[in-house]
Amino acid sequence: LRWWERDEDGGRCRYERELEALLRAGRDPRPDADPVSGLLRIHVRATLRGQVHTLTIVYPHRFPYFRFEIFASPSLAYRRHQSPDSGALCVLDQGGANWSPSMLAADVLDEQLRKLEAANDASGPYAGEVPAPEPVSMYFDYANDSLLILPREAYAIPADHARGRMIVALTSMAPLRGFVERVDEAAATLPDLSRALPLRERIACDWVRVPAPTSGNPRTVAAALAASGHLRRPMATSSRAPFDVVALLFEEEVEYRDVMGPGWAVLVRRPTPQGWVAELIRTEWYEPQTQAARIAPIAALSTMTVVQFGCGGLGAPAAHLLAQSRLGRLRLVDGDRFILGNAVRAPQGWAFAGFAKVDALRALIQANYPETQVDAFGWFVGRSVSAETGVPVPDEDALIDAVFAGADLVLDATADIGVQQFLAAECRKRGLRYVMVEATPGGFGGIVAIVHPDRAKPCWLCLQLAIEEQLVRPPLDAGAGMLQLQGCSTPTFTGAAFDLIPLSALAVRLVALALCASETYPLPAWDVAVLSNREGDDGVVGMTPRWSFLQLQVNPRCTEDHSGV
Ligand SMILES: [Zn+2]
Questions:
Q1: Which residues face 302 on adjacent strands?
Q2: How far apart are CA 117 and CA 122, in angstroms?
Q3: Distance, CA 435 to ligand 1 centroid (Å)?
Q4: 190-215: average pLDDT
Q5: What is the mean pLDDT of residues 508-519?
Q6: Strand ranges (DSSP E) for 391-500?
Q7: Environment class of residue 216 by beta-carbon count within 10 Å: exposed (0-12), middle (13-18) or buried (19+)?
Q8: Could you tell me which of 141, 428, 465, 536 has the fewest CB atoms within 10 Å of its CB?
Q9: Distance CA 326, CA 429 (A)
Q10: Predicted confidence band at 193 (pLDDT cuts at 50, 70, 90)?
């Protein structure tokens, strides 16, 4: 049964209530069901701008969980809150926040049409209007999956400059995808996108300043601009890009309310046996400040260098998070190879099997987070000679100096106590903060800790003594934690990604806090966080996960120099 054929709880039919309310409001409702889409529509009368109009209420299939849409004739031509092509009126804000299933269309119409009239009165805004700009480009009917990345240079073209040339790097022809390398003579300040978006074809095309399109339909836009003399006849760009590309620059509302600024769309015309078909290509601007604004407290990470040792089940998600946090430079150190089985705990999946782990992560990050520079060092710390091949690695002392050069912090995800001891000592010597993360067998729990280089503060050995004294004691699966899989190799770790990722996430959070600490974003008071994914070593899940936090003390048994305490 469709919604209008069903009774609501209490026995009344929602459809009858909708219709009665519209009748009572004098809206002369005339329903019809569209046999193709199965949607119920009710046409109603409304007085807008002093004239009687017919509006169409279209109810969704899953009404009243979801709200209806209201359409008016596009000729009503409201400048605000109306789609120029479909005529849809924006009467309730996007999403379900302002919708309640008990609301009747008749009531919504009464209240919202009054607001629409006020909003489209030059004297607006009306009280309660959401302060959102309405750029005309938001109503464009864009080609699916297409995108052209524009640098900020494209938004700084002087107003009297009416047309010019662009160099566009195309990474895909259909859907059209790519980025703008030059605007007129200005080179774009984009991060290195060549690995993220491998070049298929570099083209030169026109850009033209045009009046703001009054339609989002590509065919209508192309016809109107051709008629007004803004477009030349289409011509294939090159034999490898056999279509015409022209970038359109226009004024649109960029800030609420009536703050105008440059907007861009790209018109592509492709030849067919019947003539040329038009497409509009979505554009998005790249500007480092805009990217940073979403993660303002940690924006300074973009100038920092983190050295990360270990790219396994904890390290790989950590590296992914650091790249998402727009870290400036990430040095990855791990000698291991990525195998199919690692996909259960890594953001990189089967496509990367067989790669060195550092190379797999570098490829993943360069392809998706090109603002982060990745240096990959494929060696196992402490193994100066390969056991398999007998080949010595290049001078390890030199490698250590190279990875530590200019580092702001070290993240240790090796979970190897020998490596931890060495790295913690090296950090203390070099005055660097050291963050470590490790998980217990079975993924039953784990710890995240920070060690500061100050002599007066507890050191890595103090942490080890606290672990020995069971002050720090996450649960562990003593039996089945390590699984010896077929073949001659070291036993592999067991544990699910969702039990381990919280450890990686807290470690990266600690890195961000340590590097960006401020008055409003201070370092936490704890040095060690202990995660329990089980109640105890017997594996009872109970009321977990649970974190506990500890402020480390200098251990009286510690043999490190803590003079000055
Ligand atoms: Zn100590």
A1: none
A2: 10
A3: 15
A4: 90
A5: 97
A6: 409-412, 433-439, 445-451, 482-483, 492-493
A7: buried
A8: 536
A9: 28
A10: confident
